Amino acid sequence: MVQAYLVFTTNYFPWLSIIVIFPISAGFLIFFLPHRGNKVTRWYTLCICSLELLLTAYAFSYHFQLDDPLIQLVEDYKWIRFFQFDWRLGIDGLSLGPVLLTGFITTLATLAAWPLTRNSRLFYFLMLAMYSGQIGPFSSRDLLLFFIMWELELIPVYFLLSLWGGRKRLYSATKFLLYTAGSSVFLLIGVLGIGLYGSNEPTLNLEISAHQSYPAALEIIFYIGFLIAFAVKSPILPLHTWLPDTHGEAHYSTCMLLAGILLKMGAYGLVRINVELLPHAHSMLSPSLIIVGAIQIVYAASTSLGQRNLKKRIAYSSVSHMGFIIIGIASITNTGLDGAILQIISHGFIGAALFFLAGTSYDRIRLLSFEEMGGMAIALPKVFTMFSILSMASLALPGMSGFVAELIVFFGIITSQKFLLMSKILITFIMAVGMILTPIYSLSMLRQMFYGYRLFNTLTPTFFDSGPRELFVSISILLPVIGIGIYPDFFLSLSFDRVEFIVSNFFYR
């Protein structure tokens, strides 16, 4: 008993393996639950998600040292000896936040999906499978395992889109699969290229690969291949066109997972592989990446303003905000990279919240077109209040997480030693234009939805405001958004030491 207690309370306990495997393993038991509608299934799924989140929080609170920039909670088990493929897991300051974000958003997305009754067993199983598939890449320390986990979450997303989407769900699901599966070919080629380079035996360990040197031309080829794979998932222009169609047709609980977590996997991959494994190519190509990021901010914000569909407008706003992450990553400064990581967390909360509120609005009025909306504030004051507050967070209102994250990215590009003064002024000006466009489309969205009298004249007594469940989900997401905005140091401390380690060891040696 004493030995079991010591194993459980030390770093030798396989925390990460349990965290990765537990959701999908528990998901298989859904099909053996008694047939009593969807009540048992949804309560079971919510309990599994909550237990997983609590387990993750406990493991990180008691067994992760914030001031240690190295990989922690490391697990390394031989899996397929034929080509040196190991089950290798570990986390650091970069992956800590995204893993916790995944647990938090998935738990709330499960609660948000309670009105859904059709094929509920399969739906909740796919949600739990996606849970494991999204935690996997954030905790993988083996390149091939990273690729497998990257691919694992594509299957649940495809079925969630094709079975519970809108009228064009098959088109959007097929488009999503073609884009993401096609880009994964570049990821696989890059993984095998790095693993097989310069050695008779494959070297898939991320720690070893991080200290591997390559010829300049080959490193650039690897970098571009990985960039294509991560650009689709992030998304980065011009590989973003799947996103509006997918968000426009997906159920809003699926949209919460896509906007809150899936998009962040691409940004995480850029940092974990392109920046950490291929620093010389990143240093050479970062000016081009910053130009793309600046253009993306303005282009997506302008396109969002022209959208007549509520969910597509929010989708394009997500593309615009991802531009700040790209610029922060490409700035090659501690400040810029810290801002990019904080923006990943911040927009994970805000994007998930906006899609949830858009879905709850659709549940009541069955409309997504702005041309048919208006006057909702009178009938739905709680929805109006939460939508307004979180729209303010999206447009980077001071005191909210978006403002802090974007401000840090600004400081990152301004203080970068790699770029000339005129280049930094130009990029900063373009970013400022994007920040001006953001409140235009956000406030326009609020005006078209909640003001005026168009919808108010046709309201019936069956319309009802947010209930306790919906208010709980909204407030649960709002609290960390305000918390980050008021006290960002706590969240920055999660990744600060690791970011400093990466920048100092790989770029300014």
TrEMBL record:
GO BP terms in the entry: ATP synthesis coupled electron transport; electron transport coupled proton transport
Catalytic activity line of the entry: a plastoquinone + NADH + (n+1) H(+)(in) = a plastoquinol + NAD(+) + n H(+)(out); a plastoquinone + NADPH + (n+1) H(+)(in) = a plastoquinol + NADP(+) + n H(+)(out)
Residue stretches spanning the membrane: 12-31, 43-64, 94-114, 121-138, 144-164, 176-200, 220-239, 251-271, 283-302, 314-333, 339-358, 426-451, 471-492
Keywords assigned by UniProt, alphabetized: Chloroplast, Membrane, NAD, NADP, Plastid, Plastoquinone, Quinone, Thylakoid, Translocase, Transmembrane, Transmembrane helix
GO molecular function, a single term: oxidoreductase activity, acting on NAD(P)H, quinone or similar compound as acceptor
Single GO cellular component term: chloroplast thylakoid membrane
Annotated NADH:quinone oxidoreductase/Mrp antiporter transmembrane domain residues: 140-426
Primary localization: plastid
Family the entry assigns: Belongs to the complex I subunit 4 family.
Name under which the protein is recorded: NAD(P)H-quinone oxidoreductase chain 4, chloroplastic
